[in-house]
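Work Package 3 (structural annotation) set out to generate three-dimensional models for the target panel prioritized at the project kickoff. During this period the team completed the workflow that converts sequence records into discrete structure tokens, so that structures can be stored uniformly alongside our sequence database. As a representative example, we reproduce one entry of 178 residues exactly as it appears in the project archive.
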Amino acid sequence: MRWTVHGERTLYRSDWLRLTLVDVEVPGIRRFEHHVVRSTAPAVGVIVHDPDRGVLLLWRHRFITDTWGWEIPAGRVDAGESLEQAAAREALEETGWRPGPLERLASWFPTNGLSDQSFTAYLASGAVHVGEPTDPSEAERVEWVPVDRVVELLAQGAVTDGLSLTGLATALALGRLR
């Protein structure tokens, strides 16, 4: 059943998001206000894969959940930038490796009952090392992880970031990582 939207008002706004109250109606059932987090830009992630090295991953801490985990290079799309350009930029900034040709794997809404945030994952064929990451605050370390070890990390719950988890699982399910 499609809900009817009667209006929306912003409660909070920043460069990163807007928190809104949306006046919605479930036809024939009830009308109410629903909190919605509106994202100001989509996010992209890159699974950088090299058959000889594995997958390029970042080991990082997330202060919001106070957790450590493995992640793919990822971030938000800057104004005027295409999704693919942002993916390549994020990979280079966070890892120091320039990704090879990018192929779009999938796009999704990770919490579409609460937010309009969108994720797109790309697969990069190989990469060229150009130096140290330009943003050292992104990760404690950057490593090439063999694909069989990536599968183990997923099974162990060591990849908890939603963009990374879904992107890696999609690439594996499609048989794109060997």
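Helices lie at 83-95, 147-156, 162-173.
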